[in-house]
Amino acid sequence: MKELMPADDFVSLRSAFLTRVELRLQCMNSQYEEWIGSPSSRESIPLRDLYYEAHKLSGAASCYQVHDLAIAAQQLEEFVYSISQVMLLAPEKAHKADEVRRQLDSIDSVYRNYQR
């Protein structure tokens, strides 16, 4: 059976994907900062955008078989979705923001392991 793609090509595509992860992380961090600086609202555009970015990162990482990065991004995606379903008051938002920050840091840590 013929390979769909030579292994070297896949490795090159995966490497190119990994070089762009840092930009995705910067974007997600900006969305996080915008969210924590905005008034509490269920219709938070930065939070929605953070959810979509985590979703896209999770899917792309899965496609390129960077499974630990995909799992970390999926965990963030699911958490952000869960908090987007309720309006958070200031103390709750601060607590949830700490968890979002922890999960973003986790994604960054997984990514940094691939840079070594």
Q: What distinguishing features does this structure have?
A:
single chain; 116 residues; mainly alpha; Four Helix Bundle (Hemerythrin (Met), subunit A)
Task: Report on this structure.
This protein is mostly helical. It has a single domain (12-115), classed as Four Helix Bundle (Hemerythrin (Met), subunit A). The chain has four helices and no strands. The chain has helices spanning 7-36, 45-63, 67-84, 90-115. The longest helix is centred in the N-terminal third of the chain and has 30 residues, at 7-36.
In short:
InterPro entries: HPT_dom_sf. This protein is mainly alpha-helical and 116 residues long.
Mean pLDDT over the residues: 90
Helix-residue proportion: over 70%
Low-confidence stretches: none
User: Would you identify the CATH H-level superfamily?
Assistant: HPT domain
Provide the fold topology.
Elements (H helix, E strand, L loop, with lengths): L6 H30 L8 H19 L3 H18 L5 H26 L1
Helix pairs in contact: 1-2, 1-4, 2-3, 3-4
